[in-house]
């Protein structure tokens, strides 16, 4: 199943996160304003079960809250300031729900790579919630959404609850059995740490008809090199810098 297209070949990492607070709606809007069609974001679970767009296990770095995200219901999390840490002009920006992200995608015709960030043992619970939201907004075949996760358990849960979804395998380092995992999950793409990919590897992956995405690339020269290897798209915090090459 190869329905993915990346034009321009750039994915805004957590939104245009060099210019707006990561994983917020304003960061996604900024990516769209820059002419980017794809955004990447992270989904995790609040204590109440609400699926939210957030990266860290703790609130401290990107909000004015403290402590572990999982301990708080969304009624509290939505009261936090998720923008001032980045710049005072973003004061009052909130932690979005997955529902808000999906509505944004519907309203803008944008595409998203959604990374599942479930706590160990909670993969099934989070994916069930995500699947329900996806079905509500897009039905069984959401071709504008590409899922990924470092948790293989989460990926298998995705395949169970959203059997037709598009899955990308995340690799921070090369793993001996990655091809077996890729095939068993019927993945459509490889999401690779750009530091571990070289010309010969990329050419072999493309010879095997794999879609290759590399993260996180903020250096235009490196992006140019990766494109010359055949890489299909790169994740970038500053997608406009890559867009100009």
Task: Describe the fold and architecture.
The chain has 9 helices and 9 strands. The relative contact order is 0.15. The chain has an 8-stranded parallel barrel with strand order 1-2-4-5-6-7-8-9, surrounded by 6 helices. The chain has helices at residues 25-33, 74-77, 98-108, 123-138, 152-161, 178-184, 199-207, 220-229, 239-243, and strands spanning 10-13, 38-45, 51-53, 111-116, 145-149, 166-171, 189-193, 211-215, 233-236. The model has no long low-confidence stretch (mean pLDDT 96). Helix 8 (220-229) links the parallel strand 8 (211-215) and strand 9. It has one domain (10-243): TIM Barrel (Alpha-Beta Barrel), CATH 3.20.20.190. The protein is α/β, with parallel strands linked by helices and 245 residues long.
Layout: helices, strands, pairs:
Layout: E1 10-13, H1 25-33, E2 38-45, E3 51-53, H2 74-77, H3 98-108, E4 111-116, H4 123-138, E5 145-149, H5 152-161, E6 166-171, H6 178-184, E7 189-193, H7 199-207, E8 211-215, H8 220-229, E9 233-236, H9 239-243
Parallel strand pairs: 1-2, 1-9, 2-4, 4-5, 5-6, 6-7, 7-8, 8-9
Antiparallel strand pairs: 2-3
Helix pairs in contact: 3-4, 4-5
SSE order? EHEEHHEHEHEHEHEHEH
Task: Classify the helix fraction into a percent range.
Answer: 25-40%
Return Rg in Å.
Answer: 17 Å
Supply the CATH class.
Alpha Beta
Biggest β-sheet strands, sense, barrel: 8 strands, parallel, barrel
Reading side by side through the largest sheet, how are the strands ordered?
Answer: 1-2-4-5-6-7-8-9
Number of strands: 9
Strand content: 15-25%
Oligomer: single chain
Number of domains: 1
